[in-house]
Amino acid sequence: MRIKAAGLIFVLAGSVPATAQESGAPLSAIDWLSQSVATPSSLDTGGFPVAIDEPPVTDEGGALPEPVATTSLDGPSPDAVGLIPPAISGLPRDFWGAGLTREIAERLTVDRAGDLPALRQLFLTILLAELSAPVDAGGRGDLLRVRIDKLLALGALEQAAALIQAAGADTPEMFRRAFDVALLTGAEDRACEALAEKPHLAPTLPARIFCLARSGDWDTAALTVHTSEALGQISADQATLLSRFLDPDLFEGDPVPPAPSPVTPLDWKIYEAIGEPLPTEGLPVAFSYAEISPKAGWKAQIEAAERLTRAGTIPPNVILGLYTERQPAASGGVWDRAAAFQSFEAALGSGDADRIAKSLPVVWARMQEAELEVPFAVLFGKALIEVPLTGEAAEIAFRIGLLSPYRDLAARRYAPSDTTEAFLAGLASGDLTGLVPPDSLGRAIAAAFRAPAPSTEAQMLLDGNRRGEAILVAIENIGRGVQGDLRGVTEGLSLLRLAGLESVAQRTALELMILERRG
Q1: In the chain, what is the straight-line distance between the N-terminal and C-terminal CA atoms, in Å?
Q2: Residue 3, SS3 per DSSP
Q3: Of 120, 259, 327, 419, which sits with the fewest C-beta atoms within 10 Å of its C-beta?
Q4: Which H or E element spans position 10?
């Protein structure tokens, strides 16, 4: 699926305290959302999960929805909104089947930071796909909000923005997300214009002051700050920060107010505007978007792009452009990666096999240290297949080809030199007949392709017409396998194959063997 957003073409392959929930206060699935608009204090969450990457509130079945569920037949459910149709996603429209919203949401909010690239791509596709709403959806859009919040937590801002646009941002909770995405992607003027165009959404004082200043109405903004502080509607620190934002010359030499915790996108934007940008390292990955723009230094841009590329939320050609933008200013870390990348690209452009052979091991080592092997393979896998290489360079090029979309071609062109390479080629071609797995991980993988045996939980979900949840369990099982439980590898890959995701299973198996992501 190709989505054009903010000038880029995408190829898609913190929690709320229990006391807030109990009191009925406004809830947010992620604690760093800006308080940009007023939200109803009695916001109904329908009893569904609101926390990203947190375990369920209870393990008891009593917290689950009733077995008998009903849904409105008046019109399409917001939960069915998506960007990728079934013909492209490869997922059936009835993906969730008999699954219930709470149980699906709990699966979606599991921490997936350690997922392999193929599984991250599958998970992003699930979040963005056009799928029928769960049977108990009731037109509330609960699962839609969970999907959007998970996209934000993963740093997939452009994708989240497109999904919000498709669903509409006419409620306070949806608008808050759209507002923050606009701030982090450098579209703050658009965010303020949207706020002005929606009079039913009452802006909070910091957001109103920020937008008044962005529109050039500095006097009204300053008056609002002073009045709000006098009435106790904003804290002294907030007033100082906003006043400094409006007239930084008055505060020259004064200490900058400490950053709040958590930092919101609106906070980050204001600190940037007063010339004291907060480092995005240590902040949620979504904040990295703010440093991709030319306003940031080249090193900061590269580091932010590496973080987002690793997460699978921006296309590899973004990091290619940044690595080659100019000559490295120093050595070590990001500079070594940029230098190695530039040297390799120049060698590849020359067509000189000897130059390519010399530069390839160096750049591959740099990509491995940054865990950017798959994006690198997407960029250069096919070109390397065509280069006549020998020795170490040929072995590396073979593995890069297997990690690329051209793994079949790589397997056909390369003559394996040992049992490991023969096994890898068999995985890429989908035929392990007569091949000997090289190690215990290979044996766990081979078992899934020779005699699929998913976990009992995943099989029960699949048999119960809950395919989507079964696939999410399979992803979790493989993650467990990466940490050392090889049974999880067999069970997870088996379920993916039984669910019709053969290509995903193959790519995952190859990544398990090649990327060395073992705990």
Answers
A1: 33
A2: strand
A3: 327
A4: strand 8-11
Q: Of 365, 411, 361, 403, nearest to 381 (Cα)? A: 403
The C-alpha atoms of residue 453 and residue 135 are separated, in whole angstroms, by 29
Closest CA to 457 of 472, 438, 444: 472
CA distance 27 to 137: 19
Residues 13/88, Cβ–Cβ less than 8 Å: no
pLDDT tens for each residue of 290-328: 888 888 889 999 999 999 999 999 999 999 999 999 999
pLDDT: which is higher, 19 or 343: 343
pLDDT (mean) for 238-250: 90
Per domain, the residue ranges of the chain are 14-209, 294-389, 440-514
Identify whether the C-beta of residue 332 lies closer than 8 Å to the C-beta of residue 279: no
Rounded CA gap, 389 and 33, in Å? 51
The CA distance from 384 to 363, in Å, is 13
Calculate Rg over the CA atoms of the chain.
Answer: 25
Q: Report d(CA 19, CA 416) in Å as an integer.
A: 60
Q: Contact 498/452 with Cβ under 8 angstroms? A: yes
pTM of the full predicted structure?
0.86
Extract the tokens encoding 353.
Answer: 């096999």
Q: How far apart are CA 431 and CA 450, in angstroms?
A: 9
Burial of 394: CB neighbours in 10 Å, binned 0-12, 13-18, 19+: middle
Strand boundaries in 181-253, DSSP class E: none
Instruction: Give every CB contact of residue 467 below 8 A, 6+ residues apart in sequence.
Output: 92, 95, 96, 97, 461, 499
Q: Read off the DSSP letter of residue 11.
A: E
pLDDT tens, position by position, 209-234: 999 999 999 999 999 999 999 999 98
SS3 5: strand
Q: Tokens for 189, please give them.
A: 């003027």
Which burial class, exposed, middle or buried, applies to 12 when counting CB atoms under 10 A from its CB (0-12, 13-18, 19+)?
buried
Tell me the pLDDT tens digit for each residue of 122-140. 999 999 999 999 999 988 8
Q: What phi, psi does 105 have (nearest 5°)?
A: -60, -40
Distances (CA, A) of 67 to 19, 72, 99, 102, 231: 28, 17, 10, 12, 51
In angstroms, rounded to a whole number, what is the distance separating the alpha carbons of residues 396 and 389?
Answer: 10
Asked if residue 91 lies in contact with residue 500, where contact means CB atoms within 8 angstroms, the answer is no
Cis upstream peptide for 375 (omega within 30°): no
Element (H, E) at 457: helix 456-463
Neighbours of 389 (CB within 10 A): 19
265 touches 180 (CB < 8 A): yes
